[in-house]
Amino acid sequence: MKKGELIAEFAKRTEMSGAAANSAVNTIIDIITERLKKGDTVGITGFGTFSVAKRAARKGRNPSTGEAIKIAASKSPKFSAGATLKAAVNPKKK
């Protein structure tokens, strides 16, 4: 599912206009992004947790030349699925 499909489904389920649904989805994404930029964690009960993972600086190799290079430290967004989401994706078989 792409973002446009998500917005269309959101509009259908909430009986909102497409423009209002687009605004709502974009606002949620903006809020999560802003909080992650600040280093906060965003938890949605039953769904999961968005957080920032820190990667230390390290040495690497240029694949085309084999030359050693320094890879700078960086931050990466991370998502951990909650128990309810995991259970929905992996239903127990009877």
TrEMBL record:
Keyword Lyase: no
Entries under InterPro entries matching the protein: Hist_DNA-bd (IPR000119), Histone-like_DNA-bd_CS (IPR020816), IHF-like_DNA-bd_dom_sf (IPR010992)
GO biological process terms held by the UniProt record: chromosome condensation
GO MF, any single term: structural constituent of chromatin
Keyword entries, A-Z: DNA condensation, DNA-binding
SUPFAM superfamilies in the record: IHF-like DNA-binding proteins
One cellular component term from this protein's GO annotations in UniProt: cytosol
Signal peptide boundaries: none
Alphabetized Pfam families for the sequence: Bac_DNA_binding
PANTHER family the UniProt entry points to: DNA-BINDING PROTEIN HU (PTHR33175), DNA-BINDING PROTEIN HU-BETA (PTHR33175:SF3)
Family in the record: Belongs to the bacterial histone-like protein family.
Name the UniProt record assigns to this protein: HU family DNA-binding protein
Organism: Massilia violaceinigra
